[in-house]
């Protein structure tokens, strides 16, 4: 369980986070939902300590994290798997070495063959078996994302953070990735936080959702509750998403109709 | 200025706290050393050979008096290259080559969140990335400078004999005349000092990059200019202190 308490962050004179508090539960997929630029990535970075909050604190399973001693922070960090919005693959290493890297650093007593098994297992789970020797520069954006996920889950992490795991992926792959994250979360009973602005993800896997708007937490609840909120900003957000989905659906229906017409002719 | 110097000192202190295991450090250092060595050996060889050749030709042009034996040319080429030209010019060339690649590499890792990725894994990114680069430079620079000394003296030999300024025998007599072994030690000490300055300043600039591709370019440029200035100042200080 991760608890955040009253997090504030200002860059220059721009207030990015304005007193966000909340609890992220173990064994559940916790979603951070919000429009672009509302501070989702910054909040995630505050939680893992890459950005230092001006005020506020984070605790991991009761252990105080922010401002704690470096040893304790690093101890916690070794249990964190993180997927960055930009994937952040090490571009001097190939896919296999990227996924192997955290294993090498965090579990030095693992043998080479055990490591390779784990690497292949993780790559298989994200559907990238056989790309072991490719360099990051040879991968598409979506493939990089998937390698990023493989690298995050390679050591058995206790906390998994994913910054927009399925942006830039086709709907089918996005769905698979979402399901993969949910599966891992439940299988290993870990605490997962996913940043997203995709309502599909919310409906598929959102056990618990926190809606951010201009640096504030406006709403919190489960996916069953999200459809009947009376928060205007959230409704607008849902509505815009639904419009897009409906448009897609209409397009698909038209295409099907078109195809049927052609076939009947 | 003072602010940057303070930040630089703080940065250097983060390198030595909570590093990775010695085995990883050694492996990384060897990798970096191979990279630095292989990438720079060609340019160092070309530059130092020509420096030796040019020094020889110019000295012989200036030494026209019949009272001074021709072997003095060889003597002067040796003194100038070993004491000053080989270590300093080589280091300035390396400031451009190694400094910019260190700063550019670290800057890119910083803006593409690769450094953050290391941090999240609980790795001290500064010590993991930077310390091997500094150690590798300390190791490789003296080797490159030694090579540069040999090649510049050889370059002087080729230029001197080809232009007929002096005979091979005279040149060899000259370079063996009144040889002070300490000068070699002095040059190697200088090369270690320069190696530290170049690698640490460039790492500092690269590691503290924020922004985008534009800032990476700027960090690279600043790294090279800072390194060159530092090398020249250190060159003067070393000469005052050690000679
Ligand atoms: N290092 C930084 N320095 C200055 N401002 C920053 C920095 N990082 C983020 N910001 C600002 O914080 C705000 C929130 O950024 P953030 O990346 O958290 O958005 P986001 O919610 O993740 O959006 P997106 O969905 O587009 O990724 C932005 O306005 C951005 O300009
Ligand atoms: Mg973001």
Automatic annotation (TrEMBL), chain A:
GO molecular function: ATP binding; ATP hydrolysis activity
Membrane spanning stretches: none
Source organism per UniProt: Pontibacter fetidus
Statement: the UniProt record of this protein carries the keyword Transport: yes
UniProt entry tagged with the keyword Transport: yes
Cross-referenced InterPro entries: AAA+_ATPase, ABC_transporter-like_ATP-bd, ABC_transporter-like_CS, P-loop_NTPase
Name of the protein: ATP-binding cassette domain-containing protein
Keywords associated with the record: ATP-binding, Nucleotide-binding, Transport
